Amino acid sequence: MKFLSILTVYMKRTIRDKMFIFIMIVFPIVLIWLLGNAFSGIMNDSGSSVMHASMIYTLEDDSEASKSFKTYMVDAKTDTFTFYEQKDREKALDGIRKNTYDAYVIVSENQIEIYKNSVYNFNGSMAELIISSFVDRYNMTLEVLNIDPMSMANQNNTVTGFTKVIPVNKTREPGSMDYYGVTITSMFIFYGLIFISTYIIGDQRQKTRDRVLIAKVNTATYQWGIITGNVVILLLQMLLLIFLGIFVFNTYWGDHLLVPVLILTGELIMVSSFGALLGILIKSESVVAGISQLVIPIFVFLGDGYTPLPSSGIFGIIKQFSPIYWVNHSIFNAIYLNDYHNACISITISLSVALLCTLVIIMKQKNRRKVHA
Questions:
Q1: Domains of the chain (ranges plus CATH)?
Q2: What is the DSSP string of 144-203?
Q3: Does pTM surpass 0.70?
């Protein structure tokens, strides 16, 4: 009962802290949104895609070329282009100049003209290749009919597309929102150690801890009540960021959400234990905050929290000393590769550090009892 009372008091005081709400909830949400949008152009989110290219066309007459283009290109409804008819040449050319459309095709009896924007020319070049393919096929058909008009009589009217984009062994890759949804969540869990350590230091400085211990509460109950309270607080904060990411930013956490949650839970247990140890060993809130503000960004940087770093050379070696590196990469491997080996390593590292911190705390408490005795 005393344990639950201490846990509840810690949670109430932390939740009422406006700085906690801002740093641990509001700030990471804003960061996910800012970084996700800022890096969307270079992290598989945006850019010109041939699957969404658009072609505008004009049929100058009712010739066989125009009919064939309408039948085998426009009506085929290929996955490559969306076709729009425009009878006004000037409007169509203006659309090409402004990059509203990727290509403009003019079809007449004797020729086919194609216009594309030379600045944004990826889809335009693809359109040129497709139209060339159509022209070659049309010319070949005319040659065959000139030689043997009956050779095409038994051909069916099935329309076949000229191109088809087929991904080979293509797996989903993280976009910017997916990437920063994971890395920002793991980063701000680590900042939770500041709140538990400053809480413990503040209680010691204000003699709150001594008054609690006088009220027939042993040191272990007091200590583990605070640590457990911090675990619960960080767990709620983590789940809030995950579900806000999923429903607001469309962050992808994989088909097995339990695995990333377990990895992050291991991290927050480690953070709570380490933060409690800092609160016991260090007597100044400013010193704890200073150390945290120095160490955490380094861990995050080495853990690819801000941007992916090279995995070879000196960086590849140094990165493995960052606990956030194991957290982030075990989550990404589990989500995108269905590889849970690193997840086991990450959870083992987190729980091992938590156990080591717990043993040091227990030894510190025993030494304190001997001194008072």
A1: 2-44+177-372 (no CATH), 50-147 (3.40.190)
A2: HHHH-TTTTTT-------S-----SS------HHHHHHHHHHHHHHHTHHHHHHHHHHHH
A3: no
